[in-house]
């Protein structure tokens, strides 16, 4: 049977049992609460928008369905997707979000990003996971050859949670959640899949599956025993005995007919192996809830894992545990801090966070300071999203954090990262990293600028004194996103749950997803923000990851008022380009210049600088994507 035909039929059956829940639920052995839990989890993993229409076509006109699938395959071949060539991907105009990124520790020019791309209206590819990579520090981006196919996989029906790490040998390890459907029996399994790349992200080899569920019937769920979810990884870059071990923390939600058991695990891929070990449980009996794992390794090789947990389903907290034997055993979890979060720790009908509420989570992350000779060297930080500690301090979400200087035995009281934020606004979903010299960089979504619960920016702040004080947040986004429409094109998935900020000693590279076009499309962006001598940060340029443009240096820079700024540009295809000056307030200056660009040819471009001195951003925009460069006018 044609592969695309089998894929489509599998999606029909899988989605049909979801929307037919009132009927098939009566046939199952689970309680209504467990039914609802499973249905909610699967709903977030697989979506086909027009299931009824698709099912009707499959029944009555399968020939036309096959024709449509062939047309889809031809379109993707024309774009180069199915052959893994260097291609422009942004003109597909599909939302991409929930991403992770990693930088080669031996060569910062090499950056790899894994994202989720969703097209709920597609009958053949509602979810794919493009992998982008650059070998020139973001000047150009290419897409890997990986398309979700490898030996032993039936039909990739859904998944998510991409996470990557680089080891010292230059090997990238990539794990993500996969629902694998058997096309003959229509029974499925869910597990954490692992693959590696030895060439900087261009090609990938499948390595295995960790903690796979039992196979289960898609109509009745008969035989299912667990879901795995929300893994996080870290590599040991110390000089100790466990150098190059890769650790993966995640939760396994095990259930029977009446209850759910949250088992927080850590699996280890030892340096001399390509397979993850059987997991070690890090939350002993007594936890009624555990989720949202994070993990890091300090400069001495001690493994630190954190998670959100509760022992009575009333009081919730952030917990920390550690391993000193390479992940073979872990200490008993210690409480870092209590926290409150609407819709998780309590219900408040007045709480609202537009575009995120359906998937709101605490987003905890642990990171360790690898610097030497600083007062904060070896410090462990934990950051999370909440609206209070022991009790809510209002309805606004904030970024909270705590740190430990004794290996996690004791922790400071929780701090609010931006305690001067505007009332009635949310700050949430932080990504944290530390430079080799110990500087902390924090990025997060911020709704202060819009003055409401819709318009959202992505911002950056930093600390050079171990988290005691922080710089004023710098807005990274060239335009705000309206989160009331952020999920309109990907089944209300929106931005997902993962972003990542990379660092060198001289620069921060935040990578995030936003929907600034405010039409439901979501793109992935990277900002390149050098650290200044006064410890401030300035955004030099940022990119839409999918552009695949080659942009030369803009010169002169600085430039005198009214003089010409010149640069070279090469695109992969013919483009109608708009060039626009933008001031530091985000306002457009004058009328955009419209240029026609011939694809595949390096073309010299030039525009006149503004007549008023200042710091500006020169924005290039086309159907392929966007590129913004900082220019000083004097």
Description of the structure:
- This protein is mainly beta.
- Helices cover 10% and strands 40% of the residues.
- The protein contains five helices and 38 strands.
- The strands form eight sheets. It has an eight-stranded antiparallel β-sheet with strand order 28-29-30-31-38-37-34-35, with no helix packed on it. Strands 1, 2, 3, 4 and 5 form a five-stranded antiparallel β-sheet that branches.
- Strand 28 and strand 29 form a beta hairpin.
- Helix 1 (3-19) crosses helix 4 (51-60) and helix 4 crosses helix 5 (62-79).
- The longest helix is centred in the first third of the chain and has 18 residues, at 62-79.
- Mean pLDDT is 82; it is low at 1-28 and 72-91.
Biggest sheet: strands, sense, closure? Answer: 8 strands, antiparallel
Shape: globular
Computed Rg: 24 Å
Relative strand content: 35-45%
Secondary structure class reads mainly beta
Q: Give the low-confidence spans.
A: 1-28, 72-91
End-to-end C-alpha gap: 67 Å
Bin the helical content: under 10%
Q: What average pLDDT do the residues reach?
A: 82
Number of helices: 5
Please tally the β strands and state the result. Answer: 38
**Largest beta sheet: strand ordering:** 28-29-30-31-38-37-34-35
Question: Notable features of this structure?
Answer:
single chain; 634 residues; mainly beta; 5-stranded antiparallel sheet; 5 helices; disordered N terminus
Task: Produce the secondary structure layout.
Blueprint: H1 3-19, H2 21-24, H3 32-45, H4 51-60, H5 62-79, E1 96-103, E2 111-118, E3 127-128, E4 131-134, E5 142-143, E6 155-166, E7 172-181, E8 187-197, E9 205-210, E10 216-217, E11 226-235, E12 246-255, E13 260-269, E14 280-281, E15 289-297, E16 303-310, E17 316-323, E18 334-338, E19 365-368, E20 380-386, E21 398-404, E22 415-416, E23 427-434, E24 440-446, E25 455-463, E26 474-475, E27 481-482, E28 500-503, E29 507-514, E30 523-530, E31 541-544, E32 550-551, E33 564-570, E34 575-583, E35 588-597, E36 603-608, E37 614-622, E38 625-633
Antiparallel strand pairs: 1-2, 2-3, 2-4, 4-5, 6-7, 7-8, 8-9, 8-10, 11-12, 12-13, 13-14, 15-16, 16-17, 17-18, 19-20, 20-21, 21-22, 23-24, 24-25, 25-26, 25-27, 28-29, 29-30, 30-31, 31-38, 32-33, 33-36, 34-35, 34-37, 37-38
Helix pairs in contact: 1-4, 4-5
């Amino acid at each position: 049977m044609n592969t695309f035909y089998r894929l489509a039929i599998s999606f029909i059956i899988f989605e049909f049992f979801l929307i037919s829940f009132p009927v098939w639920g009566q046939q199952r052995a689970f309680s209504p609460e467990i039914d609802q839990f499973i249905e909610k989890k699967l709903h977030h993993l697989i979506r086909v928008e027009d299931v009824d229409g698709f099912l009707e076509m499959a029944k009555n006109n399968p020939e036309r369905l096959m024709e449509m699938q062939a047309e889809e395959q031809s379109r993707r071949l024309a774009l180069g997707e199915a052959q893994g060539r260097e291609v422009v991907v942004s003109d597909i105009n599909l939302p991409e979000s929930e991403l992770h990124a990693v930088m080669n520790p031996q060569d910062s020019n090499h950056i790899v990003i894994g994202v989720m791309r969703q097209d709920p209206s597609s009958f053949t590819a509602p979810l794919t996971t493009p992998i982008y990579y650059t070998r020139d520090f973001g000047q150009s981006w290419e897409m890997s050859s990986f398309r979700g196919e490898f030996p032993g996989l039936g039909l990739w029906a859904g998944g998510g949670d991409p996470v990557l790490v680089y080891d010292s040998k230059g090997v990238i390890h990539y794990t993500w959640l996969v629902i694998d459907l058997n096309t003959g029996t229509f029974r499925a399994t869910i597990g954490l899949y692992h693959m590696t790349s030895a060439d900087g992200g261009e090609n990938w080899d499948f390595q295995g599956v960790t903690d796979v569920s039992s196979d289960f019937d898609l109509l009745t769920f008969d035989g299912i025993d667990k879901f795995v979810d929300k893994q996080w990884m870290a590599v040991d870059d110390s000089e100790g005995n466990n150098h190059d071990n890769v650790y993966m923390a995640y939760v396994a939600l095990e259930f029977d007919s009446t209850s759910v058991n949250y088992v927080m695990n850590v699996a280890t891929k030892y340096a001399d192996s390509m397979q993850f070990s059987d997991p070690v449980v890090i939350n002993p009996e007594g936890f009624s809830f555990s989720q949202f794992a994070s993990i890091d390794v300090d400069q001495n090789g001690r493994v630190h894992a954190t998670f959100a947990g509760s022992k009575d389903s009333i009081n919730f907290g952030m917990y920390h545990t550690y391993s000193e034997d390479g992940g073979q055993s872990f200490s008993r979890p210690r409480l870092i801090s209590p926290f409150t979060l609407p819709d998780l720790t309590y219900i408040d009908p007045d709480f609202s966070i537009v575009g995120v509420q359906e998937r709101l989570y605490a987003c905890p992350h642990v990171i360790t300071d690898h610097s030497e000779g600083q007062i904060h060297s070896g410090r462990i930080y934990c950051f999370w999203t909440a609206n209070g500690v022991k009790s809510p301090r209002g309805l606004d979400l904030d970024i909270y954090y705590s740190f430990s200087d004794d290996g996690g035995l004791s922790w400071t009281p929780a701090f609010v990262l931006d305690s001067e934020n505007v009332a009635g606004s949310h700050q949430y979903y932080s990504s944290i990293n530390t430079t080799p010299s110990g500087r902390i960089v924090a990025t997060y979504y911020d709704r202060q600028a819009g003055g409401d619960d819709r318009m959202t920016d992505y911002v950056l702040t930093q600390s050079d004194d171990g988290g005691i004080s922080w710089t004023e947040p710098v807005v990274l986004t060239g335009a705000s996103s309206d989160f009331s429409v952020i999920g309109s094109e990907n089944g209300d998935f929106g931005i997902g749950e993962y972003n990542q900020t990379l660092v060198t000693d001289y620069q921060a590279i935040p990578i995030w997803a936003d929907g600034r076009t405010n039409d439901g499309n979501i793109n992935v962006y990277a900002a390149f923000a050098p650290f200044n001598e006064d410890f401030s940060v300035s955004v030099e340029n940022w990119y839409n990851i999918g552009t695949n443009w080659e942009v030369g240096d803009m010169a002169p820079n600085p430039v005198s008022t009214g003089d010409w700024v010149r640069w070279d540009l090469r695109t992969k295809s013919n483009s109608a380009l708009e060039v626009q000056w933008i001031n530091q307030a985000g306002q457009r200056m004058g009328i955009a210049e419209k240029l026609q660009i011939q694809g595949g040819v390096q073309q010299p471009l030039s525009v006149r600088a503004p007549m008023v001195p200042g710091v500006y951003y020169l924005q290039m925009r086309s159907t392929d994507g966007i590129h913004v460069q900082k220019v000083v006018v004097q």
